[in-house]
């Protein structure tokens, strides 16, 4: 086995070992500091299991969060792609609106949440809208950037082959922007997710964010950690999936 | 009948802004390319060669004058004209084979036929082992070969090439130049080749149009007069040196003229 | 008309136009005053809050906008300071120990995918409601951006020829680090600082909003629940203005730094 190969395996092991390491430290902390400071990992795990499978108190909140996320994200994708596309194609509009879009990133958007509450009430709608509001911006920015950056010579090739506009979009524009598009969609998902959870934490009647703020009684800490784990797993799963696709797209294109 | 005839072509970039003057990029361009000929256009950088390439290929509009393909006036991209660009133009998301098939696919040729034809072309440019590779895995020279194959497979009446080897290193250039000659002699395509390299133009072509700057116009036409087939030893023949000298004299005049930045900037598009 | 001025004018028209629409909508009563305050009133209220130094005391424990502003500002500064203090060295560490960096890479990269705010209740459980928790949240939000950008910044210099120049001049390792790596990595380091600061702002104010302790975020939350719509919008306006101004300034400096290096 070559040195390089051995190193690669070590790295892979290290990556897998990290969560185990965290749990180990957690267990040590529990043993050292006791139940008052730190919940037991084992108990947390059983609470998690109970929440999801046996008694399912997590499930209804999970369902609500997922619905809000799905719709908020979907709207963000549809409108985001559209706006991003238009801004990418039209230089004037882009130069006018780009600073607005970029600056929104710096604002703590959750402080604007009351506006959504006014507009949509306390129910799930306001969370859907808030998730939409969060997720749309990276999609717009990345789509816009991707279209702007299409290599001019590819379009020239299309014209020299006398492609009709539909063919130009399908065969040249779309494959060209696909990698950036995927990144935008992934970031859009992450931000929509944050938006939905924040909205639920701020003012809601259901959902995982709500559950986080309202957990109480016995096994309070364990419940909270369980919810965090569920959130983390969802986020990591979707991100890994997107990364895999992005990776494949980039490898094919040799970038 | 000539395959390509350009008559009194003129191109002016009209300025949209008040204090920027309009630029006359091309003036009174006349050229003829007959079937099976290899013609070069040579000129200093920024003198309008790429503009001419764009106008003949139909990507840009001329201000006045005519372009005729086999006696018919054309405006805009024409199926009889094939174009090979200077920058890397092969699509990175398609394999080499799929790239070569691209034009055929767009005009609706069925899969079997375009596969066969494309494979033939790939073999002609000597890239058969790489047909299922992606351009990202290939060198610059190989990518240009794919671009050439992609154009050849459409069987155009004339192929326009805008400094196709310009972005490559010296040795790859020479090798690809020889490759191009080999391919050309095999299929006797008609080629209009734009370059700024004197040795390249003399080595490859039957006739050379020497272009002047600001506005671009043809100063002189030179018949190369070196018999074919040519080889790397051609470069040391007397005739080669003669022609090279003549061209160099013409170009030197051009490059020593004072530079007017604006016109050159615009022509770089 | 020159193009750049055309763009500038359009930008301002869009802004003014939007504000104008909102103004009209709320003044004519299309949307109730209790839901949307006219834009002009937002500014007026904001101004009033600053100069009289007070909002009717019956609402707030700390009855001045200046007071809340100061609290928020301190929390942001603290969290940012510690984010840089700890993040910068960790970033450099990751740059030096490439294996460690590769092992941690997937986790660092997915850090911002997970709603960090979900850790709130956990932190509050440990440290209680107060300035410490809020500062911690801001710190947690900001630190990974600093780490990633620091590591990337130094890696970028590695890829270029400059360290070799240093070695060929036989400079000591610390000199190379100080005079070649550091300046070379500066644009990226600044990006890390910029992001770190902005995330501190977002982390702190968002936490204040959700946890309702003290500060600007709290101000918005509280005035919302007290039906003081005018004050709420004024506070929102203040936050937006601050965020945009800071972001704008930081972006300009960042662009200048990158521009100097010709990138």
Descriptive overview:
- Chain A has 255 residues and is an all-alpha fold.
- Chain A has one domain: MetI-like (MetI-like fold), CATH 1.10.3720.10.
- Chain A has helices at residues 3-33, 41-54, 57-89, 91-104, 113-120, 124-148, 152-160, 165-202, 208-214, 220-253.
- Chain A is flat and about 75 Å long.
- The model of chain A has no long low-confidence stretch (mean pLDDT 88).
- With 269 residues, chain B is an alpha/beta fold.
- Chain B has helices spanning 49-57, 96-106, 111-124, 140-152, 170-187, 198-204, 238-255, 261-267, and strands at 4-13, 23-33, 38-42, 64-69, 72-73, 81-84, 158-162, 191-195, 207-212, 217-223.
- In chain B, helix 2 runs parallel beside helix 4 (140-152), helix 3 (111-124) packs across helix 4 and helix 6 (198-204) crosses helix 7.
- With 263 residues, chain C is an all-alpha fold.
- Chains in contact: A-B, A-C.
Q: In percent, how much strand structure appears in the residues of chain B?
A: 15-25%
Low-confidence stretches of chain B: 261-269
The figure for the number of domains of chain C is 2
In terms of per-residue confidence, which ranges of chain C show pLDDT below 50 for 5 or more consecutive residues?
A: none
The CATH homologous superfamily of the largest domain in chain C: MetI-like
Determine the N-to-C terminus distance of chain B: 33 Å
Number of domains of chain B: 1
- CATH architecture term of chain B: 3-Layer(aba) Sandwich
CATH topology of chain B: Rossmann fold
Query: What is the quaternary state of this protein?
Result: heterotrimer
Taken from the alpha-carbon principal axes, the silhouette of chain B is globular
- Secondary structure class of chain B reads alpha/beta
Shape of chain C: globular
CATH topology of the largest domain in chain C: MetI-like fold
């Amino acid at each position: 086995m070559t040195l390089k190969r051995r190193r690669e395996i070590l790295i892979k092991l290290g990556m897998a070992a990290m969560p185990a390491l965290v749990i180990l430290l957690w267990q040590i902390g529990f043993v050292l500091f006791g139940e008052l400071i730190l919940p037991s990992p084992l108990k947390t795990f059983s609470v998690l299991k109970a929440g999801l499978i046996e008694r399912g108190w997590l499930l209804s909140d999970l369902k609500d969060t997922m619905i809000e996320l799905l719709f908020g994200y979907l709207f963000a994708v549809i409108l985001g792609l559209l706006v991003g596309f238009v801004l990418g194609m039209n230089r004037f509009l882009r130069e006018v609106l780009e600073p607005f879009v970029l600056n929104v990133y710096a604002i703590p958007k959750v402080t604007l949440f009351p506006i959504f509450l006014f507009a949509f009430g306390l129910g799930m709608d306001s969370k859907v809208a808030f998730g939409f509001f969060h997720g749309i911006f990276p999609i717009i920015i990345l789509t816009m950037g991707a279209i702007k950056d299409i290599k001019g010579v590819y379009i020239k090739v299309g014209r020299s082959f006398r492609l009709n506009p539909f063919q130009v979009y399908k065969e040249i524009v779309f494959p060209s922007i696909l990698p950036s598009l995927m990144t935008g969609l992934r970031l859009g998902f992450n931000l929509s997710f944050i938006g939905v959870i924040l909205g639920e934490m701020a003012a809601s009647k259901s959902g995982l964010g709500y559950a986080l703020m309202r957990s109480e009684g016995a096994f309070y800490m364990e419940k909270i950690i369980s919810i965090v784990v569920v959130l983390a797993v969802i986020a990591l799963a979707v991100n890994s999936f997107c990364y895999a696709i992005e990776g494949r797209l980039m490898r094919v294109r040799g970038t | 009948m000539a395959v390509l005839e350009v008559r009194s072509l003129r191109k002016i970039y009209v300025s949209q802004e008040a204090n920027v003057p309009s630029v006359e990029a091309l003036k009174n361009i006349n050229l003829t390319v007959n079937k099976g000929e290899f013609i070069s256009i040579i000129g200093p950088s920024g003198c309008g060669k790429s503009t001419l390439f764009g106008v003949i290929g139909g990507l840009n509009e001329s201000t006045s004058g005519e372009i005729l393909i086999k006696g018919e006036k054309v405006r805009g991209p024409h199926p009889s004209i094939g174009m090979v660009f200077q920058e890397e133009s092969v699509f990175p998301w398609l394999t080499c084979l799929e790239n070569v098939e691209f034009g055929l696919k767009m005009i609706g040729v069925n899969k079997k036929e375009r596969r066969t034809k494309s494979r033939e072309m790939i073999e002609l440019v000597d890239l058969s082992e790489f047909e299922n590779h992606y351009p990202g895995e290939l060198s610059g020279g190989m990518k240009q070969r794919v671009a050439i194959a992609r154009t050849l497979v459409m069987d155009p009446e004339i192929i326009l090439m805008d400094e196709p080897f310009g972005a490559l290193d010296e040795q790859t250039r020479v090798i690809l130049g020889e490759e191009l000659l080999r391919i050309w002699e095999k299929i006797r395509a008609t080629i209009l080749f734009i370059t700024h390299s004197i040795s390249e133009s003399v080595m490859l072509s039957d006739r050379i149009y020497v272009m002047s700057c600001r506005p671009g116009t043809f100063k002189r036409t030179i018949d190369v007069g070196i018999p074919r087939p040519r080889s790397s030893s051609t470069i040391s023949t007397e005739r080669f040196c003669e022609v090279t000298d003549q061209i160099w004299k013409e170009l030197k005049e051009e490059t020593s003229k004072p530079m007017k930045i604006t016109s050159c900037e615009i022509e770089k598009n | 008309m020159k193009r750049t001025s055309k763009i500038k004018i359009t930008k301002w028209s869009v802004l003014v136009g939007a504000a104008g629409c909102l103004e009209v909508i709320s003044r004519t009563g299309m949307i109730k005053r209790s839901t949307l305050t006219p834009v002009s009133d937002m500014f007026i209220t904001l101004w009033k809050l600053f100069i009289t130094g007070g909002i009717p005391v019956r609402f707030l424990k700390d009855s001045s906008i200046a007071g809340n502003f100061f609290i928020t500002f301190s929390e942001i500064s603290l969290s940012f300071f510690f984010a840089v203090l700890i993040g910068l060295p960790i970033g450099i560490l990751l740059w030096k120990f490439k294996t460690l960096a590769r092992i941690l890479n997937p986790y660092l990269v997915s850090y911002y995918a997970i709603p960090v705010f979900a850790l709130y209740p956990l932190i509050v459980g440990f440290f209680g409601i107060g300035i410490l928790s809020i500062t911690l949240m801001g710190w947690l939000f900001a630190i990974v951006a600093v780490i990633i950008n620091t590591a990337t910044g130094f890696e970028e210099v590695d890829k270029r020829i400059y360290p070799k120049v240093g070695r060929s001049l036989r400079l000591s390792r610390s000199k190379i680090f100080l005079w070649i790596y550091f300046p070379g990595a500066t644009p990226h380091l600044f990006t890390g600082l910029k992001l770190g600061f902005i995330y501190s702002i977002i982390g702190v104010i968002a936490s204040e909003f959700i946890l309702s302790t003290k500060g600007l975020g709290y101000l918005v939350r509280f005035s919302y629940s007290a039906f003081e719509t005018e004050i709420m919008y004024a506070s929102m306006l203040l936050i937006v203005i601050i965020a945009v101004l800071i972001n704008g300034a930081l972006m300009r400096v960042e662009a200048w730094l990158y521009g100097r290096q010709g990138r």
